[in-house]
């Protein structure tokens, strides 16, 4: 039939068998997986993407998003109801939404496509919906149906269950809120008389930054009537939690000391920055235990400049000292006595002189992106005419004669 894609029987059976091998799926997730096996691959990719982005966002923090015990990305049964757990639920839910939406727009799934529902409609601002927007509504719907299944399967929802469901939704909303409006102008000479626009998925790193900000402002909650979450605090009037706020139940440990039973790796051995006061600072990561300083010195050439004709002037430094063009970094030109003394010594043997100069020109022309090499006669002629050459010999710190 036209417009209907049929999955070959062997491929269909392979995809269904995949669902039975995934550990930790509840009955509802098994049904969804069997009905949409191709989409589950996108969900799996999204969950992996979420964990990777979590590790990227927290790479400089005491907690660097190490998943406890190598758990399946589909079954984050983290014991603590902390804000770290809240972030993991949100970022994996966002990853599933992002990956499914992306797969729909790319045409990799038969169950969905890009969103053309508003194509051709005009807006009050004078532009028209065009192209094919990323179908974030399908991505959110499928992620909700699959990711929320374990919590929705519980008959009596605990505070932890409500927390997980709320944070899953925060992750999906993060994708929707970060959607970008892209437009293209049409008209004579780019006059933009007509503009067509469509919605585009944000980069997942952008979503990660958004959720990291929510993590920094995560709210500790307590249960209330009608299964709603309220802020926990000493004030009498407790303001309801907003839909986009991450929530947690328990306070976070400091993650300073290793605790294998709780899946805490500690911060011992981590690399820190002693010149900053941010998350990567030694004061924060080392938890007051002190730190060992290791200085790596690396020889580098900077301010390399080719002068015609024919020498290269540069400054030799050892990192981490910054490279500058300060003239104080260069020695004086040699005196005439030094010049003729060096010239006389070199003229005692012409062949080594040519060899030495050829080595110099090899470096100089390589630095100048030139493939032409001068002859020995040209080298000697330039040598006698050019006192400036000795700027190369005497002009840079930590540099000796060739």
Question: Short summary of the structure?
Answer:
The chain has 402 residues and is α/β, with parallel strands linked by helices. Helix content is 41%, strand content 11%.
Main attributes?
402 residues; alpha/beta; three-stranded mixed β-sheet; 13 helices; 41% helix; disordered C terminus
Present the secondary structure layout:
Blueprint: H1 9-21, H2 27-35, H3 37-57, H4 83-105, E1 128-129, H5 136-147, H6 149-152, H7 159-177, E2 180-186, E3 194-200, H8 204-216, E4 219-224, E5 228-231, E6 247-248, H9 282-285, E7 299-307, E8 311-318, H10 336-347, H11 350-367, H12 376-385, H13 390-394
Parallel strand pairs: 1-3, 4-6
Antiparallel strand pairs: 2-3, 4-5, 7-8
Note down, in words, how this protein is organized:
The strands form three sheets. Strands 1-3-2 form a three-stranded mixed beta sheet, with no helix packed on it. The protein has a three-stranded mixed beta sheet with strand order 5-4-6. The chain has a two-stranded antiparallel sheet with strand order 7-8. Helix 2 (27-35) crosses helix 3, helix 3 (37-57) crosses helix 4 (83-105) and helix 4 crosses helix 7. Helix content is 41%, strand content 11%. It has 13 helices and eight strands. The longest helix has 23 residues, at 83-105. It has 402 residues and is an alpha/beta fold. Its main location: secreted. It is found in: Secreted, Extracellular space, Extracellular matrix. Ligand for members of the frizzled family of seven transmembrane receptors. It holds the Pfam family wnt. Keywords: Developmental protein, Disulfide bond, Extracellular matrix, Lipoprotein, Secreted, Wnt signaling pathway.
